[in-house]
User: Fold these one by one.
Assistant:
Number 1:
Amino acid sequence: MPDGIFVRAKWYLVVIMHMAHAHAQSSCSSDEPMLSAEGLVIGFSGRPLARLRSFSLRKGEIVTLSGPSGCGKTTLLRTLAGLLDPLQGTLLSENQSPAQTGYPLFRSRIMLLPQQPALHDCSVEENLRRPFHFGTQHTHSYPQHIATKLFDVLNLDRSMLGVSARSLSVGEQQRICLVRALLLSPRVLLLDEPMSALDDAAASRVKALLRDSTKTYHMSILLVSHQTKRTADWHDRAIALESISSESHRDC
């Protein structure tokens, strides 16, 4: 990655994240986990899929979640993001449950990027602008200059801002979703196969940007990835999700 581009983008990231989180940092103890779970059982319609016995995600940490296909990793990410209720157990962010924080605010702090990019059928720039009309972001305006710098870092052509988001390749859409997430300054990013459609060069840029984000303002990351060679020398640690059957769940 060209050093000049990366340094400029890093400076812009520092600015936006400082503005968005200055009020939060004063009230959040450095010892508090950004996300924690105890005795968490996840599933659908009362049917358990998996268990996370004890988990905490510290500030600035990158953790990889492993487990066999179909064991519930994506369901866990959706549960941790406050999009699904756990069947059992407690989920806390900075010692508050989603209900205590308020679900809209909780979901703005704990942000999920699914493997399949979720973009509206409009221009790329409109997709980046739209979340800033939401209530949880009403105090912040869309930082266009920062968005374009992030495009530079991720090797996205700025001309893409004016094209239909859904006309782009999956890899381009994945990176645009990442730009949008970073502009919204989450405290925790939950990433589901974030580099599945990227070549090695694009994946290296994504990893460098995310690692810098964890160092710059202590954003925490939990990701699911089957691309172990790409994440082995990048994450801080790995955890495994424990699959359970309905029978064993009734006995626990």
Note: Residues 3-27+35-251 form a domain with the Rossmann fold fold (CATH 3.40.50.300).
Number 2:
Amino acid sequence: MIVNLLEKGNNIIDGFADKKALLVFLFYKAISDRYLAELENIEKEKPNLKDIKKYLIANVRTLNLYDVDNKKLLIWHNVKNSPNEFINALNKILELNKNTLAKLRKLMENTNFYSLFEGENKIILEKLINLFSKADFSKLDYNTLEDTYKWILQQFTSEKQVYTPREVSKLLAYLIEPQDEEVILDPACSFASTLREIYMYAKNKDKNANIVLVGQEQNEIASLLAELNFILSKMKNAKVFTGDFSVYPKFKEEIKKFYKDGKADKVVANLINLNPNKIKTINHYARKMGAIVIDNNSLSNEEKDKNIRENFVKNDIIDAVILLPQKTLNNCKIIVLNKEKKDKRKGKILFINASKFNSLSEKNIKKIAKIYKEFKEEKGISKIVDIKNIEKNKFNLDVSLYTPSKNKIFRKL
């Protein structure tokens, strides 16, 4: 639905402004719809509350869309019929949320967005406003939003984007088990789907859990979408930075608010197609543990990364290696790092061959997480290997070497 809407918007705006300007309309309409939905929730919770107090609560739960000083509700629905009121409301929202929406402001300045409000271009503007007014973002499920983010990245970025499938993000959350008051970092977060799954996991375990989520993403559009993702998912303690983390780890200053050394409690990352050396950087910023998605060939038997494998194995940092199902992420695995190994895990690595599963269903995710948590062997699925034996194999971390893949054990689970 939303992708079709954006495709139509693409045709309308083509030749008049940078197509990335569509993201401004997407954001404004989506957050306005979510704000109205939040007002409905507040009405059910506190039906006798005055409107102004409801607006103030909605401001806290979503975004500052009520201008207290001027007593104006700045939602899309109130300004859609007047281009002047529309742009004034949008500018005021940017002012009221200047830290949160810095990336959106930058996008507006860099895409000729404001030119749509000049002269004959106002006809294009009215068409776009009418188009987006037909959509209701208040009840969209996250799968639809995720598909929308992917479409946007495919259309508006020249760089090849690597996405972490939602089920893999969910597995990463189950593996690291985020706890109250922890700082979680994803330094290659794309549009922050994994950070969102970590947030949802923590809230499902404890609705009062307070975790801090920090991301960094090299692609500017993906970084903006991460910011939008945080807002629409009501993730208050979440922040994303733009840039290559291995060149300039901007996230450090944010994490230093909690830890002086700028290191997070736990780190997750998708490093598919990236230099294996970045794994060392990930490990550096993890205080307790990390879970990293990499190509299956990385840290296996290639000479180019032998030093990394050897260092990690000898220092007993690797807790588990999990080969993912082909239908989920073909020829990829998860490396779980643990700097706080308990005695029964010391000197050993757990290899889990999840390629034996047809898919990462909810049950399969929980099963893999259970095997990891209990650090146990299961015939045909997992094997605990002493690091001395791994050293004999030239520090090869290929899962199939230790848990041979002959037949699929589970057809459906």
Note: Residues 46 and 54 are 9 Å apart (CA to CA).
Number 3:
Amino acid sequence: MKLAFGLLPLSVIAVATTLTRSEEPSVSTPVAPATVVAAPVAEAPAVATPVASSPSSSLLATQFFGFDECCRVSDSITSNFNGTKIPAGSYLWLNAVVNITGITDTTTIVKLCDGDVVCNIGGDDYYVELPKARIVVSELVNTATTEFDCDKRIWTTLVPKGYTGNVFLTGALLSIKKGLPGGLNPVTWDVTFCSDHCGLSFQWKWAAAVYDCGTDCEDDLGVKPVDGDKFSQFQNSDHAGTPEYIKDCVIGGARGGGGSNYTGSYSGTSTAKCE
């Protein structure tokens, strides 16, 4: 049974998203922009000195807001959480990456047009709507960046065309009010990709990690846009999707074991072809 969004008995609340029913391990009212469950991180941990950025990356992104869709494809991946309980007062970081192949033009736009996560607890399905996303791969971009619009709830990631590897796709930070049991199974991500270019392939996978601190907007997380120690300001070996500004708060749970596993372990990889 898939319950209607907004009436779910999951003990999770996404920032700016509500899933409630009091008699179940449930979520409470949405975290308003001025309210958080745990105190926001006061200061971001030190990160590597940024490399030279793309000229006016925020302004550059606005050049690509127009979009003539060429193709659309849907896909899903089902996996599970590990056996570690997720404690009350913690934060669940759902995140996904994609490796895009088949790009030939100077600039290509890929969007996550729709996405949601469904998990099963006690025979009921619980639903979380994922933020939409826009990935711009362009020769005009020198440095990969990721930004989040807290009002529109959409990610924008700019990537140099010369980069090959995983790119941050989307992420949602959920505030855990009353805790979750370990071993949630199944957990299914359903996504729909669309692009202004046909003939692309999207190799994607998802992960989940638990943190004991959080923030009221995902833009304050400092999400790493790409893998590796080049191409972005975060010159380290962390995976794309790492919330760099709170990574010292990571603990075990979901698909992670704490330590340096900042995104959680990945699900299997699926390939969706946008033809």
Note: The CA atoms of residues 42 and 215 lie 9 Å apart.
